[in-house]
Amino acid sequence: MASIRLRAVMGLMAAALAGCLTACTGAAAPTAPAGGPGAPDGGGQPKVNRLVMAMTLVKENNDPRQLRTVDLLPLRPFYEYTVGVDQSDGKLIPQLATSWTVEPDGTSFRFQLRPGVKWHQDRGEFKASDLVDILKLQMRDETENRVIWVPLFKDIEAVNDREAIVRLKGADSTFLTTFSEQRGVFPIFNPAHFSEMGTPTMQGTPPVGTGPYQFKERGVAQFTRYARVPYQHWRTTPDFPEFEFRFINEPSTRMAALVTGEVQIAELPDDLKTQAEKQGFKLIAGKVPTTQVYAAFYCCHVKDVKNLDAGWAVPNPKMGDVRVRKALSKALNRDALNRTFFRGKGVPLYLASFEPARLGWNPEWEKRFAAEYGYDQAAAKALLADAGYSAANPLVISMVYPSEVRGGLGGEDLTDAIGNMWRAIGVNVQNFQSDPGSRKSQTDALKLGDHVVVGATASDQWTSATSHGSTTPGALRGREVELPAADALLGQIRTTLDDKKLDDLWRQVGNAYFEGARNAPLFTVPPDVAVNPSIVADWTFPGSMTGYWTHVFSIKAVRQ
């Protein structure tokens, strides 16, 4: 819902809006030069040299080994992957590898690599030996993503410049997705450049990549800029010579920047999307609507995964009682949230990490959802009373700010609304402010109990089930409710290659999640952005990858 401040801002901008959609070309972006290396073929030049997208700030780091999924977003435009993601349907496709096969041992993959792929800054061609060296850098003790690779990789062998064998420690049904652009945690960066620089710092630059854009400059907590490579890229030539992610956390400020022409694309919450459309801006949505929005219960983390009788890391968690988690879910008026924050476009989500097109789907979850978790304040209050909570002894929980919902999916307003719905059934909801760095330290140390984080993910099924809280080896801990019985099944999933068995195992995991109220699911929504249609003609991106705003090289320009 638009705030008083926002309405005032919009009033001040009304005069500036007139004619802007045809006249504004971005004051900070000079007119594109005619022709030049890498210029797109035919049809004239784009109206701006630098295309700017306003978005909420993500974690920043010039060392790609320290970033996961959404946090890697500012580096994605200039990195590629061995296995890519199709921008139209979200499926895994060849990228720097032209093909791959499973070796007879069932635990190794042989990759045929694309010839003629250039490193940025004239650093030669990408070769199989680079994969070997990247893995060595990824496996160092100081690397954040080491926890993913140590349980998975045995080694990588460069057979020749264009062929590599990746050997795993065992059969792994999740490997290709984990290794691919979908998860994003094994970007192909130049290991020689990395070693030459030493561990990248924010005072320096990231190691170079191979993408259609190359890194240009960064303003810490302000922007990251990229320039089109000065040669014919193997994959595509971006329409815009430069691209910029500009970090603006306040939604009304992003809207103002869009209206005044300071930016040409903006990540907006749904109330502002409606206003943007009324003022002539266009919404472009991802092609694969798999972004799941839910309230995550940060609670109930096993103290010792090798001794499940050792109890919880944070003693006596209130949300450890499944009745409490069910009550919180039943207190949510999802129809009202959908109308208010998603313009009614949200598709009901019955179980996070699952959907009908994924393995393990059980149609019984949809049939039972209304009775088990549907909106019913009286039933929610009864569940809390049964768990021992009353007006004299209220349930006390903490809502975490800032939330992990991207600015285009409701942001802090959605968190506020959910907290107020819980207050309406007598819950003492306290606001907990925590910057992302501090929160990560607390979650990694298993110190957050009885906290709620409103989040959204477009992750693949395995990543969604493990990176958001699990005792499974290689998973992130300290986040969502840990259910050891389900985690044991996840361990079997990882080593199972038979699709029928996988489907059955995933269904068992889903049943455990459903019965255990692992979180409070809300909606599946298509991520979309507002664009200035006089500058941006189209953008094809899947939207099914955490971080959403990928494949920026494919943004099409209106030409002059």
Short description:
With 560 residues, this protein is α+β, with helices and mostly antiparallel strands. Helix content is 28%, strand content 19%. Among the domains are: 58-211, Dipeptide-binding Protein, domain 1; 291-525, Roll (Dipeptide-binding Protein, domain 3).
Describe this protein's structure.
By secondary structure, the protein is α+β, with helices and mostly antiparallel strands. It is built from 17 helices and 21 strands. The chain has helices at 4-17, 20-23, 128-138, 146-149, 175-179, 191-197, 251-259, 270-278, 322-330, 334-342, 363-373, 377-386, 411-423, 436-444, 461-466, 484-494, 499-516; strands at 50-55, 83-85, 92-94, 97-102, 108-113, 153-160, 163-168, 213-219, 223-228, 242-247, 265-266, 282-285, 291-298, 347-348, 396-401, 428-433, 451-457, 519-525, 528-531, 536-538, 556-557. The strands form five sheets. The protein has a seven-stranded mixed β-sheet, with helices on one face. Strands 14-18-13-17-15-16 form a six-stranded mixed β-sheet. The protein has a four-stranded antiparallel β-sheet with strand order 4-5-7-6, with helices on one face. 47% of the residues are buried.
